Structure formats: C-alpha cells, structure tokens
C-alpha cells in the first residue's frame, strides 16, 4: 500500500555569502554551534551522511545519502531516522538551494517525500523553522540557539 507523502518548503534571507551558508550546513564544527548536531560526510554524491547529536553520547539520529553537491549553491540528500535506515519507504529528501540576493543570501530548504502524518513529518515541521532561525542568527551575529533556547556563543 502506498502511503500519502507530504513536503515542506522554508525560505529565509541571510546577511552572509553562499560560501558561508554552505559551510555552516556541511562542516560539523560549524553546524554544532547553531544546530546542536554535526552533519558528517565527505559531501560527494553517493556518499553517506550522518546527523550526530553534539553531546557526550553522540548518537546518530538521522542518516542518508548525498544525492547532489554543488558547492556553494546546492546540496541534496536523502533523510531518515537512524533506526529506520533499513526501510526504503521511510526516506525523504532535503534540498538546500543557496542563491546570492541583494540582501545577502536566499536560502530555500525543501523537505520532500515525507510520509504524511509520520513522526518525522511532525518533527521537521517544527524543527526546520528553529534550525534555520538559529542558522541565520549564527551567521549574522555569531550566536545560534540550542534546543533549550539558550544562545550559544561561537
């Protein structure tokens, strides 16, 4: 049986450069400062990537494969919970489109092919706005947010 699928699109404008935005998404040491997670991969199409929580236990929470990588303007990857990695139907796709804009950068994040009504769909619908706000704050001020809402210094 085919499950219904859903998608989300988030757009934000950041006073930064495409290079700095792409680096913030792909460099583990930078991502942890505003996301509380490290995105770990060599970012070559076909390579795996892991979303590792930045704490003492360092659990891998999300996994996937890099579909497309065109620094500093585009990154496409598959996405699923680490515990669901063996279920092909659990995978969705995330696309980061990073474009120069008169105000800096226009960042569009599309999260497609999510199972409608799933815990993942509910989580990303709340998670992406927080993560992208934290990314914007980090790049513009040097301070992002952690999950408790406290500002994190760069």
Give structural notes.
- A hairpin with a 6-residue loop joins strand 3 and strand 4.
- Helix content is 26%, strand content 44%.
- The relative contact order is 0.22.
- Strands 1-7-6-5-4-3-2 form a seven-stranded antiparallel beta sheet.
- With 154 residues, the protein is of the alpha+beta class.
- The model is unreliable at 147-152 (pLDDT under 50).
- Helix 2 crosses helix 3.
- It has helices at 18-26, 28-35, 119-141; strands spanning 5-14, 37-40, 48-53, 60-70, 74-81, 92-101, 104-115, 143-145, 151-153.
- It starts with a strand and ends with a strand.
Question: Short summary of the structure?
Answer:
This protein is 26% helix and 44% strand.
């Amino acid at each position: 049986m085919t499950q219904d699928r859903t998608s989300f699109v988030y757009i934000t404008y950041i006073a930064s450069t495409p290079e700095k935005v792409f680096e913030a998404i792909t460099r583990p040491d930078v991502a942890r400062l505003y996301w509380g997670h490290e995105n770990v991969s060599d970012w070559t199409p076909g390579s795996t990537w892991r979303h590792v929580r930045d704490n003492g236990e360092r659990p891998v929470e999300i996994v996937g494969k890099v579909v497309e990588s065109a620094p500093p303007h585009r990154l496409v990857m598959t996405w699923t919970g680490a515990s669901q990695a063996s279920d092909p139907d659990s995978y969705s796709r995330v696309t980061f489109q990073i474009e120069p804009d008169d105000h800096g950068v226009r960042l569009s994040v599309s999260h497609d092919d999510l199972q409608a009504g799933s815990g993942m769909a509910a989580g990303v619908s709340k998670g992406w706005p927080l993560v992208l706000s934290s990314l914007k704050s980090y790049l513009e001020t040097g301070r992002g947010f952690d999950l408790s809402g406290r500002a994190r210094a760069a």
